[in-house]
Specification:
With 224 residues, this protein is α/β, with parallel strands linked by helices. The protein contains ten helices and seven strands. A seven-stranded parallel sheet has the order 3-2-4-1-5-6-7, with helices on both faces. Strand 2, helix 3 and strand 3 form a beta-alpha-beta unit. The relative contact order is 0.17. The model has no long low-confidence stretch (mean pLDDT 93). It binds guanosine-5'-diphosphate (GDP) and magnesium ion (MG). The site of guanosine-5'-diphosphate has 17 residues, from helix 2.
Length: 224
């Protein structure tokens, strides 16, 4: 039998600090959200673990949407510009936000990035959050929509083990369906796990490698 060690709230060392930080973050998120509304900019916060396919999905979306929308992509990364360089090749504005050791973007970092952007010129901002299935969920950025990307290569228990981030998402993408059979992972099972946690989420299967399912993601985000 497995023994479980649970913690009580007052046993977590940084709980007070965390609450005040989260409150500050919420204030910045509200300001960002108002700014996006004032400038009539659609915004999407793309979250998911490292390697799930966030950058690949953004590239596939940008290819399809760049004629219709004036797009900027904000790329969160600890230190590198690898993802920004990949997206910039598609001819859209890309801003790199290095978080150093932080495992998520926060609303303050986004508001700083917005200061240097020509918001009147933009219709759509896509934000790639730092690769992580835990921290980004807690820190809203002020984006209108939140999308989580998981992939079948992360195994069959990814959703069940990280329920909180799925509660926060309005669209969930299950990527790398081209590898589902090899991984012995079923799309329908992962989808059912998401729907149990968040019945309102739109769940879409994709293969960014084969450019499959991207139009449905675009539809779910009301961008078509
Ligand atoms: N087989 C397969 N590989 C994919 C797919 N989507 C992304 N990849 C690969 O997975 C790796 C990580 O993708 P990336 O977009 O960088 O993930 P990110 O870390 O979430 O931004 C890269 O080698 C991609 O080429 C897919 O649908 N199928
Ligand atoms: Mg990436």
């Amino acid at each position: 039998m497995t023994k479980i060690v649970e913690h009580k709230e007052d046993e977590v060392f940084d709980i007070e600090l965390e609450e005040s930080i989260l409150k500050k973050n919420e204030d910045f998120a509200k300001k960002n959200s108002e700014l996006f509304k004032t400038h009539n900019i659609k915004t999407i916060d793309i979250m998911g673990s490292i390697g799930s396919g966030k950058t690949s999905l953004i590239e596939a979306m940008v290819k399809r949407l760049k004629e219709k929308y004036q797009i900027a992509v904000l790329n969160g990364d600890l230190t590198t510009t690898i993802d920004s360089d990949r997206v910039a090749k598609h001819g859209v504005d890309v801003i790199q936000i290095n978080t150093g050791k932080e495992c998520h973007l926060d609303a303050n970092l986004i508001s700083k990035a917005l200061e240097d952007m020509e918001l009147d010129q933009l219709d759509l901002i896509i934000i790639e959050n730092v690769g992580n299935l835990i921290c980004p969920g807690e820190f809203r950025l002020g984006a209108e929509q939140r999308l989580v990307v998981i992939s079948v290569t992360e195994g069959p228990y990814m959703v069940l083990k990280h329920p909180f981030i799925f509660m926060e998402a309005n669209v969930v993408v299950i990527n790398k369906l081209d590898l589902a059979e090899a991984m012995n992972v079923e799309f329908e099972k992962l989808k059912a796990d998401v729907m149990r946690i968040n019945p309102k989420a739109e769940v879409i299967g994709t293969s960014c490698r084969n450019d499959k399912g991207i139009i449905y993601v675009i539809g779910a985000l009301n961008l078509s």
